[in-house]
Specification:
alpha/beta; 8-stranded mixed beta barrel; TIM Barrel
């Protein structure tokens, strides 16, 4: 994307963001999963994008029970107690450390909130965050409530992405959706590879908050569970028109049930996300917000390499 999608001369971070924001009205920031956001960067995001542009921000891994690289910790977090694995990964932070992490996250994102450009906070949980028995389910639901309370200073919708299908299997599906709706948490609908022998989330479109959120991960069964290589390699998939059309009716239904519905493309190989965002915009028609998913009429669309780490999207 950096080398091929942007025209020659659009090379600085500022120029690339401005160019992107002329063509899409939202982006999902993925870098914050690996390290807490920094205010100076966030101020630049707010300043370099037009009014109406929206940033959805992925929660730092520690906030969603993932192990994180100890080197990513802010200095003031190192004074707390936590477990350190042999690989230098941080896990099981003490409650005070977790609370401090949420507070830093909220404080650093203040420029987006003040500029009216803060969207949702994506809370993507690991597969072991499951609803496989009553005790575990209750424990995990309690954490969702406490996380939402700690995110309140951000002023953003909490977007909940489960990665274990127990949350939407059998009678638990209704319980999950009722809980999210009662707490104004947005269920994240996903499109991901389906396996007969492994567990992934089914393509279920549900609206549980004023906003709906759809993430398109691609359908590459060979790479989806890779633990080596880049994210672009893992999500190496270009949706066909037929595959995107499968989501046309569900997205339109979500749009009819919510104030806004966001469709984000995580297939960050080559220019796949850009192409598919434009194509789904054509499928959805005039419900797509102006500027979303395309370029000005008559402007050629460059071909080439993508994979910036941030996800492309549009809203309807």
């Amino acid at each position: 994307m950096v080398e091929r999608w942007y025209p020659r001369g659009v090379s600085s971070a500022e120029a690339r963001l401005r160019y992107y924001a002329e063509r899409f009205d939202t982006v999902e920031v993925d870098s914050t999963f690996y390290g807490l956001p920094r205010r100076e960067y966030v101020e630049n995001w707010a300043r370099r994008t037009p009014d109406g542009f929206t940033f959805h921000v992925k929660a730092y891994g520690l906030m969603t029970w993932h192990e994180v690289d100890e080197r990513s910790l802010r200095p003031d977090l190192r004074d707390f107690e936590y477990e350190r694995t042999d690989r230098g990964r941080v896990r099981l932070p003490e409650p005070a450390m977790l609370e401090r992490t949420f507070r830093i996250f909220a404080d650093e994102l203040a420029p987006l909130r003040e500029a009216g450009k803060m969207g949702g906070v994506l809370m993507q949980f690991p597969p072991f965050f499951a609803a496989t028995d009553p005790k575990r389910t209750a424990h995990h639901l309690d954490y969702l409530e406490s996380a939402q309370a700690m995110l309140e200073p951000v002023g953003a919708t909490m977007l909940v992405e489960f990665r274990h299908p127990s949350w939407v299997t059998g009678a638990q599906r209704e319980c999950t959706m009722r809980f999210l709706a009662d707490h104004d948490m947005a269920y994240v609908s996903v499109d991901a590879p389906q396996f007969p022998e492994r567990l992934t989330m089914p393509p279920l479109a549900e609206a549980t908050a004023p906003w709906a959120y759809v993430r398109m991960h691609g359908r590459n069964r060979d790479t989806y569970f890779m633990r080596t290589g880049s994210a672009a390699d893992r999500f190496d998939w270009l949706y066909t028109a037929e595959e995107l059309a499968e989501w046309g009716e569900p997205i339109l239904r979500l749009a009819g049930e919510t104030e806004r519905t966001w469709v984000m493309f995580n297939n960050c190989k080559y220019d796949y996300a850009l192409r598919n965002a434009r194509e789904i915009a054509e499928i959805l028609g005039d419900v797509v917000a102006p500027r979303s998913g395309g370029v000005p009429t008559g402007e050629p669309v460059p071909e080439g390499d993508a994979g910036s780490g941030d996800q492309l999207g549009l809203d309807v």
